[in-house]
Design goal:
This protein is an alpha+beta fold. It has 14 helices and 16 strands. The strands form 3 sheets. The protein has a 7-stranded antiparallel beta sheet.
Length: 432
């Protein structure tokens, strides 16, 4: 499953941004260019899919704190469009596809597993009045479901489209193409027409449709992190399905969960940690007197384990990065300022792991690190920059098409190219 394209309009400084990531993508650029706002937009999306639009806005401090501030709040709808490419097998792992007549989700191969699926969701909402007490309304919402029987030609046929207007009414269009229609249980989709929805909530929070529910589950598993050693050192609360907070809280609980539920993935984490600390024997999550969990590090030749307050920021940050990366529930991973508190050599270890993880899901990092930039290809780098107060996001190879050939011929490292100011958008105060 991969995010094919994300369009964001009027969210904080993101006036009109379209982002089409590679499996591993880095966003670079000057301070205050909008990289953190982009990371925050990913987190907002995950909150929308997990908790609903109203709860997501509340968690961000209200509409006024997420709206683009260069325009009057009642004149500029906030809009998101999310395009995900996956296949039948991957989607079925999220949700039983009751809409599929010819299969039930089960282990083993199904003749439709290889079908490529493109899911598109667009929604927009705006404030009806200029005052902060003015309600926000959903102005429209669209879902599109497309299939392709080929893994190579990239052509998709839309088989179903659901549109909800501002009044809450639904319009459902089903393709009559006989090549695809037998994959859709039309009666299930038609049942949606009897429902009406509030103009202040998204269709996704009320849907009885299996395709939509699958997309919602995928989007709810987007994870955006701005990890801080202050939070990753805190104790954790053991629960059946623990998650790491955006700043790294609850790390001990997630470590404990991985050790018990996914020992192979935990072994991958330990391999990475031993690359950093060769004499590390074990990391354990133990009960504390506060009835919570704490982390302890056992090192060869040391008589007692280190607790989290005795290890370096780089050590605890590295553990949090590795744990976040291998979490099998994550459908997209974004790490803001991935190099924070991490030694350049350790960053190489981290990025090696991130590239491995990117074979299964999108991995996006924001960074100022020349070490990280030199571990990437030109097409994997996007540049964030501000122009007239709005964040722009462009691929490096689009800003300077010559960079790929020069890099492939060994004329320069990418960090030197960016530092030279050849691409003015990539450096503070640069001209373009």
């Amino acid at each position: 499953m991969f995010l094919r394209q994300l369009t964001i309009r009027n969210y904080k400084s993101l006036r009109n941004v379209t982002f089409a990531p590679t499996p591993l993508t880095a966003i670079v650029g000057p301070n205050a260019a909008g990289k953190t706002n982009f990371a925050d937009a990913i987190h907002f999306l995950s909150e929308v899919y997990e908790h609903g639009l109203e709860a997501a806005i509340v968690r961000k401090g209200g509409y006024e704190n997420i709206a683009y501030r260069k325009k009057k709040r009642a004149q500029t709808p906030i809009e998101f469009e999310v395009v995900i490419d996956t296949n039948m097998k991957e989607v079925s792992e999220y949700m039983v596809f009751s809409m599929l007549r010819n299969r039930r989700v089960r282990s083993g191969h199904c003749k439709y597993d290889h079908y490529q699926v493109r899911l598109t969701h667009r929604f927009s909402f705006y404030a009806s009045k200029t005052g902060i007490r003015g309600p926000f309304l959903v102005t429209g919402e669209d879902w599109s479901f497309s299939f392709s029987p080929s893994e190579t030609d990239g052509s998709f046929q839309e088989v179903a489209h659901i549109r909800r207007n501002q009044d809450g009414k639904l319009n459902i269009t089903i393709s009559e193409d006989s090549k695809f229609e037998h994959h859709i249980d039309i009666s299930t989709l038609k049942l949606l027409e009897v429902f009406s929805y509030s103009t202040q909530s998204l269709f996704v929070t009320n849907s009885h449709d299996q395709f939509v529910k699958s997309f919602v589950m995928i989007g709810a598993d987007f994870r955006s992190y701005q990890l801080s050693a202050v939070y990753t050192r805190q104790s954790g609360v053991p629960t059946p399905n623990p998650n790491l907070s955006p700043f790294g809280e609850n790390l001990p609980a997630l470590v404990d969960w991985l050790q018990r539920k996914h020992p192979k993935l935990w072994a991958t984490v330990m391999d990475g940690m031993r690359d950093i600390l060769p004499e590390l024997n074990e990391i354990s999550a133990r009960d504390l007197h506060t009835q919570t969990l704490g982390l302890f590090f056992n090192e060869e030749g040391i008589g007692r384990p280190w607790n989290v307050n005795e290890v370096s920021d780089g050590t605890i940050q590295s553990l949090a990065l590795l744990v976040a990366a291998v979490d099998p529930r994550t459908s997209l991973l974004l790490i803001d300022e991935v190099e924070s508190s991490v030694h350049p050599w350790i960053l190489r270890v981290m990025m090696k792991q991130m590239r491995e993880v990117s074979k299964l899901k999108n991995v996006i990092v924001t960074s100022h690190s020349p070490v990280l930039v030199n571990l990437l290809k030109p097409e994997e780098i996007w540049v964030a920059y501000r122009k007239q107060g709005a964040t722009n996001l462009k691929r490096l190879v689009d800003l300077d098409p010559s960079v790929k050939a020069g890099w492939e011929e060994g004329h320069f490292q990418l960090s030197d190219f960016l530092d030279s100011g050849a691409v003015g958008q990539a450096v503070p105060g640069g001209a373009w």
